[in-house]
Amino acid sequence: MVEMAKKGRTALITGASEGIGRELARVMAKEGWNLVLVARREEILTELAAGLIVEHGVKCAVIAVDLAEPESVGMIAQKLRERNVAVDALINNAGFGRYGLFADVDETAFRSMIEVNVTALTNLTRAMLPGMIERKRGWVMNVGSTASFQPVPFSAVYGATKAFVLSFSEALATELEGTGVTVTCVCPGVTETGFARVAGASKQEVDFRGALSAGEVARLGYAAMMKGKRTVVTGGMNAVLAFGTRLISRKMAAGIAFKLMKKRRS
Ligand SMILES: NC(=O)c1ccc[n+]([C@@H]2O[C@H](COP(=O)([O-])OP(=O)(O)OC[C@H]3O[C@@H](n4cnc5c(N)ncnc54)[C@H](OP(=O)(O)O)[C@@H]3O)[C@@H](O)[C@H]2O)c1
Q: Per-residue confidence at 207, pLDDT binned at 50, 70, 90?
């Protein structure tokens, strides 16, 4: 049953073509949100949008764009203006990693990773925030990771991008207190999605035992956002491990992660 209060509200979700983003689209459409779905693969987005329109009676638009391109956020903002769409909830979910030693990974992968995980997320937030503040209502969800909490050898740049996401989200949440706009950083641990495939992980490098599904992460993330929580680590064990890193030195945390990954890779 669609709650009346949410009728007419619009959420923009990046990375909606697969994994956690696709499940967030499903969860939010079920809750009555109109959606703007963003990712590169237009056909998949269009198919998803068509299904959500029929199933939930919501409005659903698609913007196919590569967020690694510097002009992507300007293009999204322009399209929203043309369609007269005000974004009430911004879900910065798109992101990817690349496994390997820093010196071995192609530098173009890092450039795109920083563009998508950091630059596009920051620019989209900057573009959508003034409208939310003016309307005295808004939600920002930034998808971080358990990697936000510690250095991550074999994913050094990815871990650094996710540390940015957490730090940025927490600072922004404080700046926005009392404005009616909340910022929630959702930090999943290993989740069963296309992430590991895109990151180029070998079979032994990925362990889905005890991993949450993308649907579970989406439901937990959405609930945390609607409660106005600042940070949520999805999954009890992930939360223990993420907050447990505070009890040891960052050098030790990096060393343990390095040994674990090295063992899996050998
Ligand atoms: N899965 C995990 O274990 C895990 C753990 C912690 C955090 N996370 C985070 O969760 C978020 C979602 O990841 P996921 O696990 O759902 O991965 P996924 O299944 O690979 O989905 C990633 C999404 O991001 C989009 N995307 C990637 N590069 C893009 C680009 N250049 N431009 C536009 N869209 C782009 C992809 O769409 P297109 O390919 O169609 O562009 C896809 O919809 C990411 O921020 C990730 O870092 C994942």
A: confident
What does the DSSP assignment read for 204-217? GG---TTPEEHHHH
Q: Which of the following is catalytic: 99, 149, 158, 168?
A: 158
Q: What is the pLDDT of residues 18-61, one digit of tens each?
A: 999 999 999 999 999 999 999 999 999 999 999 999 999 999 99
Domain boundaries, the chain: 4-265
pTM more than 0.90: yes
Rounded Cα gap, residues 140 and 229, in angstroms: 11
pLDDT tens-digit map of 105-162: 999 999 999 999 999 999 999 999 999 999 999 999 999 999 999 999 999 999 999 9
Nearest atom in ligand 1 to 66's CA = 32
Top-confidence residue, 3 or 192? 192
Q: Which two tokens stand for residue 69?
A: 């391109």
- Extract the tokens encoding 230: 């600042």
Contacts of 20 (CB under 8 A, 6+ apart): 93, 143, 188, 191, 193, 214, 217, 218, 221
Beta pairing class for 181-188 and 138-143 = parallel
Is the Cβ atom of 32 under 6 angstroms away from ligand 1?
no
4-265 CATH: 3.40.50.720
| Helices 121-135 & 156-175 angle (0-180, nearest 10) | 10
Atom of ligand 1 nearest to the CA of 41: 40
- Tell whether ligand 1 has an atom less than 6 A from the beta carbon of residue 221: no
